[in-house]
Specification:
By secondary structure, the protein is an alpha/beta fold. It folds into two domains: 164 residues, HAD superfamily/HAD-like (Rossmann fold, 3-Layer(aba) Sandwich); 69 residues, Hypothetical Protein Ta0175, Chain: A, domain 2. The chain has seven helices and twelve strands. An eight-stranded mixed β-sheet has the order 1-12-11-10-2-3-4-5. The protein has a four-stranded antiparallel β-sheet with strand order 6-7-9-8, with helices on one face. Helix 1 crosses helix 7. It is globular and about 50 Å long. It starts with 6 loop residues before the first strand and ends in a 13-residue tail after the last helix.
Length: 260
């Protein structure tokens, strides 16, 4: 991650571009439980406008499963990479390449549920296990310790990713940057300049990938150094900026203010 100063959100590049969007903390405010987030009518209307403005080159890049994304944004079924790229839907309303839950991850989930008490939510997402501690921040350290200890007895190929309010265990191949690169090979995205908005440590890999291919990386509400080259202060600013993008014929005047 870069320690260099970040710029306010950019004007949109001229020409053809593609848009990749994280969901939680980027399009939606975080909630104590992942199912408690609220998708407003304005966002439901904004997404089809953005997709049309991008010539169809829009995809969610999220840690949620695609089934969970579809439930949130129903009736929309947009292109998406779920579970950090372990699931893909390459065409709107198309088939989903899904990922199953291994037996050892299921067993670990049961152990964590028995060990951790309070308002901790253990989310089982196929081969990914997420421990959400937003409602019980005092348990984050213990949850992280338990997940890290589990690495020693799991098969190789897993990593631990600490987030803003929880910790996740996932396969090494689960990476948002790889998901973005895969979409860029699809005909709807090929030859376009990619733009990616995200808000968490799990998005840094995506920012790195975007920067490597001369795209536009934007982090929402950064909490320290980030590889993103641009910043927006919060979800409200992100939605306002995207709204301007969706209504622009050519270029977008930057509505953001510099992050502190």
């Amino acid at each position: 991650m870069s320690g260099s100063p970040n710029l306010p959100a950019p004007t949109m590049p001229q020409g053809r571009w593609a848009l990749f969007l994280d969901i939680d903390g980027t399009l939606l405010e975080h909630a104590a439980h992942p199912d408690a987030v609220v998708v407003g009518d304005e966002l439901r209307a904004l997404l089809p406008r953005l997709e049309a403005r991008a010539g169809g080159a829009l995809a969610f890049i999220t840690g949620r499963s695609i089934a969970a994304v579809d439930h949130l944004f129903r009736p929309l079924k947009l292109r998406a990479a779920g579970l950090y790229g372990l699931e893909h839907r390459l065409e709107p309303d198309g088939p989903v390449e899904a990922a199953d839950e291994p037996a050892d991850i299921a067993a670990l989930a049961r152990e964590l549920e028995a060990e951790l008490s309070g308002n901790v939510y253990i989310e089982r997402k196929g081969p990914i296990l997420a421990v959400h501690t937003r409602a019980a921040p005092q348990l984050l350290q213990r949850a992280t310790q338990l997940v890290e200890q589990a690495l020693d007895r799991l098969p190789g190929g897993y990593r631990v990713l600490a987030g803003n309010a929880g910790v996740e265990l996932m396969p090494l191949e689960a990476a948002k940057g790889a998901a973005i690169r895969r979409f860029m090979l699809e005909s709807a995205f090929a030859g376009r300049r990619p733009i990616f908005l995200g808000d968490d440590t799990s998005d840094e890999n995506g920012f790195d990938a975007i920067n490597e291919i001369d795209g536009v990386s934007v982090r929402i509400k950064p909490r320290g150094p980030t590889a993103a080259r641009y910043v927006l202060a919060d979800v409200s600013e992100a939605l306002a900026w995207l709204d301007v993008v969706s209504r622009s014929a050519e270029r977008v005047v930057d509505p953001a203010t510099p992050a502190k």
